[in-house]
Structure formats: C-alpha cells, structure tokens
Amino acid sequence: MMKRILCTLALVACAALSLPASAALLTDYGENKLVDALFRGQALGTPATWYVGVSTGTCNDATPGTEPTGGYARQPVSASLSAWAGTQSAGSTTASSGAGATTSNNAVIQFPASTAAWGNVQSVQLWDAVTAGNRWICVDVAAPFNVDRAGVELKFNAGQLQFYVDN
Questions:
Q1: Which of 31, 112, 117, 153 lies 20 to 30 Å from 56, alpha-carbon distance?
Q2: Secretion signal: which residues (predicted)?
Q3: Bridge partners of 6?
Q4: pTM for the full model?
C-alpha cells in the first residue's frame, strides 16, 4: 500500500494568484527509503537541504515530469526546525509535539522570475539535490497555472506549503 502524505498549498504568482493543491505522494524513491529505514534497519538519509521544484507534469510515483526552463531553478529549504513548522502549530520552531501531523514552510519560498514561458505548472516536488538527484515527494496543484511569459514570479508564502502525514 502506498503511504500518502496529504498536502495543501497555494502557489502565488505575481502576488496575485493562489492555487490550492491536492494530496501529495511519496514517490517510489521516498517509499523505498521509508520502508528500509522503518523495517530494515537502514539509515533514512534525508537531505540536510530540500530543493523545492515545480513541474509541467502531474505527479506519479515513478517519473518526475518536466521542470521548466527559462530562469527556473529549484529553491533550497533546509531540513531544520527553523525552516519547517512543528506539528503543534504553524510557525513553531521546536521539535514536533502536536497531534495534527502537519508541517509547513516557515519562510517564503521564492522562485526567480521566469525569463521565458514555462508552460502550465501542474505539480510541486521535493528533491534532495539542486539538479538531478532523487525526488521524494510530489503534489499536484488543484488548478494548473500557465506561466506564459517572462517576468512571472512564483512563490509560497510562509505556511502555504503544508504537508500532513496520514496514517
């Protein structure tokens, strides 16, 4: 059975557009790492920095879709108490102690302005490297957003990228 991580997020373009998203999934890579860590005694090996990326494809376990070109770069967010909220409340910076099983970004995640059209942004992904690397989590946005020109800025305001671990 695939482990689901539920996610809500809003993608903001030019500080005017907000796009909610649907459930996020651990990718095949993320599922395998979790199974090996929980049941097989292997180190989980989570990265010190997550790289948030977007794709013009929808999520699936095995393939990442196409990341944009034209000024695009994955954005780094440290895997730390200060970067991601504890489960007890949005914006918290202490170890998780809540019952809500939800975390969110504690600071703005800002992508550089597009230098060309990127196409329809359909998903957000968490990677363990700034280029190439392994994709651990993917979430589809509820309504794709067409980056149809240069100068469009996409960002997640603090608290907008939320992950809920479902059991």
A1: 31
A2: 1-23
A3: 164
A4: 0.85
